Amino acid sequence: ERCFLEFNDNPKRFQSLYELIFEKQKEIYKIAANSPATIVWCPDNITGPVTPPTFFKEFCLPFYNEMADLLHEKDKVLAVHMDGQLRSLVDLIAQTRIDVIEAFTPPPMADLSIKEAKASWKDKIIWCNFPEVLIGACDAERIENYMIKLLKTIAPGDNFLLGCTENFPLDGWEVGFKVLANVLDKYGEYPVHL
């Protein structure tokens, strides 16, 4: 909230601070580029309602592209945490040179389907978060059906990872993760055939 108030009320100060942060972040990314790491993770936590398209285009897009270029020069991969509502940003995210959209969360928690994301981000790896609301609120059959449908959508599985990247309700772990493990054991081998 404070960010947008400053952006609106004090645009020169905001721009100055943005440029300072950009340069400091660039120093960090240069260190990462010269490290033995192969993947560099950016924990931005992007979501459309907090990062509207105009803001993303002006501030995020140039940052991601410059950092991606810096990392790509050293054969590194850039992954950015984007687990929110991404429908309003889908085309702008496609314009970035980000390699991995990490923690992408499909419906029912977010507003962009895996099918739409794959169609828009053909050159990117989608590291999908299984929607944690299903673990806490659904029975084993519904979790299994959702998981099978998800695997059918991503088949054969190119440029796709599935994980549990967020906070899952403890009371759903025993049933939910057992179902996920069983479905993946049965159908999750690459290439996925369902």
TrEMBL record:
<dbReference type="InterPro" id="IPR000257">
    <property type="entry name" value="Uroporphyrinogen_deCOase"/>
</dbReference>
<protein>
    <recommendedName>
        <fullName>Uroporphyrinogen decarboxylase (URO-D) domain-containing protein</fullName>
    </recommendedName>
</protein>
<dbReference type="Pfam" id="PF01208">
    <property type="entry name" value="URO-D"/>
</dbReference>
<dbReference type="GO" id="GO:0004853">
    <property type="term" value="F:uroporphyrinogen decarboxylase activity"/>
</dbReference>
<feature type="domain" description="Uroporphyrinogen decarboxylase (URO-D)">
    <location>
        <begin position="7"/>
        <end position="103"/>
    </location>
</feature>
<dbReference type="InterPro" id="IPR038071">
    <property type="entry name" value="UROD/MetE-like_sf"/>
</dbReference>
<dbReference type="GO" id="GO:0006779">
    <property type="term" value="P:porphyrin-containing compound biosynthetic process"/>
</dbReference>
